[in-house]
Specification:
about 425 residues; 9 helices; seven-stranded mixed beta sheet; 20 strands
Length: about 425
């Protein structure tokens, strides 16, 4: 086989690969943010740095569930979370797997806040990708953890690029363009729309507050993303996390940098932080009502995944709306991230989950170590397929330029980001 078409395989990582240490993770810190709008009509897709215009404000008193918001229905005491699905526009939705906004934030931060130097991190990816990687290591009920979330499907394939001696991981978008939205996905978007406001409640007219129950969700066309730095066993990671809403009066503007560190976490002065925004972002999701022991057992898996995502991204609260089989909202409950482990360990019926908290973090450290031991440092781009198959993570290096271009490996990093990094190399001392 010629060098132009060779495919190089590397030693795989077993999903239950043991570690001889207990991983320690620093408290996540936000150092950037951006809003993103999809291309629609005559407007191109846009990425707005240091911009929170797509961040909403959570406001949903539980009494709302008892309100009649659908007077033409016999079931007047419920909120129908499928209302408007036939009018939902799923075309030109944002590709949430792209790293463009994250890379643009990195370059902007290096240019304006880091004295024109490269940020010192080993790994960059989205929280969706990280969740998929970590949950692959968790075997519960004799099968790999799978809650039905798109990030937890058994088939997990990523594009991995090494560049400038750093590792970049991009999830592959498996959804076909313009496919109809499922009832479950629309239900989640509708609840996020119903439970949030575009401005703080004091700035919105009362009539507009109630009209949101009639709104068609556009959450797939707009997003707000927080850019986070964290350390796992002193390996530095840059992580992006989409947030629907914020709650609390102390949200900090991005241009107010504080440089705060806690004494009980890994101290790292290589980044400057902007304060304490992360605890005010909240996760908002839906789950079916629980009617028996088996359904409660399945909910524990779902709640564990909500905890893991919140823990990794520094969010303090997850709000879950419970819906019946007709997707009518029947209940609302808030779960504090700090209280979920004790709740599941004390009250949970699923014994495997009680060990999953430590296992997930240990595998986090093990996974990065495997990448560093396996991949060769490279200043120029090298392309790999990262795939989970037969309980192992596999790295396959691609060198065939036709395959690289055909499958878009050469577009994981933007030309703008690479041009910026190249300019740093040619700077005179």
């Amino acid at each position: 086989m010629s060098s132009s078409t060779a495919i190089i395989n590397y030693k795989p990582l077993f999903n239950k690969g043991r570690t001889d240490y207990t991983s320690a993770m620093s408290k996540p810190r936000e150092f950037g943010m951006f809003s993103q709008n999809s291309a629609r009509q005559n407007f191109p897709e846009e990425i707005l740095l240091k911009d929170d215009s797509n961040l909403n404000y959570f406001h949903f008193p539980e009494d709302y569930i008892l309100m009649s918001t659908n007077n033409d229905s016999d079931d007047s005491g419920s909120i129908d979370l499928l209302k408007g699905i036939k009018k939902f526009d799923n075309s030109m939705a944002l590709d949430t797997t792209k790293l463009d906004g994250l890379l643009k934030t990195i370059a902007d931060y290096e240019k304006n806040k880091f004295e024109g130097k490269k940020l010192p991190f080993e790994l960059l990816l989205t929280d969706d990708s990280l969740m998929s990687i970590l949950t692959s290591s968790l075997v519960i009920d004799n099968q790999i953890l799978n809650t039905g979330d798109s990030v937890n499907k058994p088939s997990r394939i990523f594009q991995l690029v090494t560049y400038d001696n750093q590792i970049f991981i991009k999830n592959i978008n498996m959804n076909e363009a313009n496919t109809p939205i499922s009832n479950g996905e629309y239900c989640k978007l509708k609840f996020q729309t119903c439970s949030t406001l575009s401005k703080p409640i004091a700035e919105i007219e009362p009539t507009k507050i109630e009209k949101r129950f009639l709104k068609i969700p556009n959450n797939k066309h707009k997003k707000f993303t927080s850019v986070i730095k964290q350390a796992i066993n002193k390996h530095k990671v840059v992580l992006s996390s989409d947030s629907i809403a914020v709650r609390g009066p102390n949200f900090v503007e991005l241009n107010s940098y504080a440089g705060i560190e806690d004494e009980d976490v890994i101290v790292d002065d290589s980044f400057v932080y902007n304060g304490e925004n992360l605890p005010y972002y909240i996760n908002v999701d839906v789950y079916k009502t629980i009617n028996n022991v088996n359904e409660a057992y399945q909910f524990e898996k779902f709640l564990f995944c909500k905890w893991l995502r919140a823990f990794l991204t520094g969010k303090d609260v997850t709000v879950i709306g419970f819906v019946d089989e007709q997707f009518k909202l029947r209940g609302l409950e808030e779960f504090k991230t700090s209280e979920i482990p004790a709740f599941l360990q004390k009250n949970g019926k699923n014994k495997d989950i009680k060990f999953a908290f430590k296992d997930a973090l240990n595998f986090y450290g093990k996974f990065i170590e495997w990448l560093q031991e396996t991949l060769q440092p490279s200043e120029n781009e090298r392309y790999y397929q990262l795939k989970f198959e037969n309980n192992h993570w596999h790295l396959i290096e691609l060198v065939d330029q036709e395959i690289i271009k055909r499958d878009g490996f050469n577009t994981v990093l933007t030309s703008e980001f690479k041009a910026w990094r190249e300019s740093l190399r040619v700077k005179t001392p």
